[in-house]
Amino acid sequence: MLDDLDRALIHALHIDGRAPFTQLATVLSVSPQTVSRRYERLRDQAALRVVGLPDPHLTGHEQWLLRLRADSETALNLAHALVRRQDTSWVYLTGGGTEIVAVLETPLGMAHGHSLLLHELPPSMGLTAVSAHHLLHTYRGWRTPWRMSANALTARQQRALSGQRLTEHDAVSSVSSVSSAECDGHVQLTPADHALLDALRRDGRTAVADLAVGTGWSPATVTRRLERLRACGAIFFDIEIDPALLGGNVKALLWMAVAPAHLDEAATALAHHDELAFVAHTTGPTNLVAQALCRDTKALYRYLTHGLGAVKAIRAMETAPVLRILKAVGTIASPGLPHRPA
């Protein structure tokens, strides 16, 4: 079970995933040694991980939500094949265990990127149905965490962490070698940037010294470049953790159909529901998708009938229970990967 300090540390890492233990200790009013021990315990026992992620819109990519159906004998093998890909995240096994839902990231303008992925999968996977939904706008998720995982700090504590980030951004902006125009639109990533992002996808708190080895830059260059990418919004940090420890024992994907005239209003309202960790507008007949996390099946029933039932704009809905989460947003780490928390 998580106590108040665990929850506060998780919330703090949502605000700044790379904040030094000394800074986290000051905000949480404990010693740095206590923060370090709690962080390592949460890593070991709660599957906590900080991951660095590129913003697809700023780095020239787009996202697709794929629904793949396969024979019951091959569905799990298909899911694992998707897990091993570098361009996938959120690989779920849903429904009766024969449907896989995954997010695929493709270069901007590669409209048939999801089709190319399917051609790369072995024919023995036994696909029986495929649908692809372009993620057009995210109302909750990615940069905006689930409300139940980020509700432990006071407003003053949150300001202390976010205010420090702004101070750091101001400090590096004048010495960065990157043009300020880069923050106004598409950010051109170099091969070294990709190496940096690959390392941060595995562990967002990888020490600067290790990042320098992976990129070929000096530690000072790594620090400047990372801060610049964060200041531009081209990279941000997210948290992976077992949602059951935060009250999300029952997980379900909700595929909803909403009239276009009411879509933005309905999605904005849903983004404030405590039960939803993800809300996004997609293409397709179900143009609004959400992920629900509830304490138990009774709580899910109450939410579906009363919480969502009160949103009159929802014309139709399909509920797909999530049986297994095989991959979240970060890269699956390789054995023996060096790790030294920043």
**What would you call the shape?**
globular
Q: How much is the radius of gyration in Å?
A: 20 Å
In CATH, what is the class of the domain at 247-321? Alpha Beta
The CATH architecture of the domain at 247-321 can be named as 2-Layer Sandwich
- Return the average pLDDT rounded to an integer: 88
Overall number of strands = 10
Overall description:
The protein is an alpha+beta fold and 342 residues long. It has a domain of 75 residues: 2-Layer Sandwich (Alpha-Beta Plaits), CATH 3.30.70. It is built from eleven helices and ten strands. The strands form two sheets. The chain has an eight-stranded antiparallel β-barrel. The chain is globular. The C terminus is likely disordered. InterPro entries: AsnC-type_HTH_dom, Dimeric_a/b-barrel, Tscrpt_reg_AsnC-like, Tscrpt_reg_AsnC/Lrp_C, WH-like_DNA-bd_sf, WH_DNA-bd_sf. Keywords: DNA-binding, Transcription, Transcription regulation. It holds the Pfam family AsnC_trans_reg.
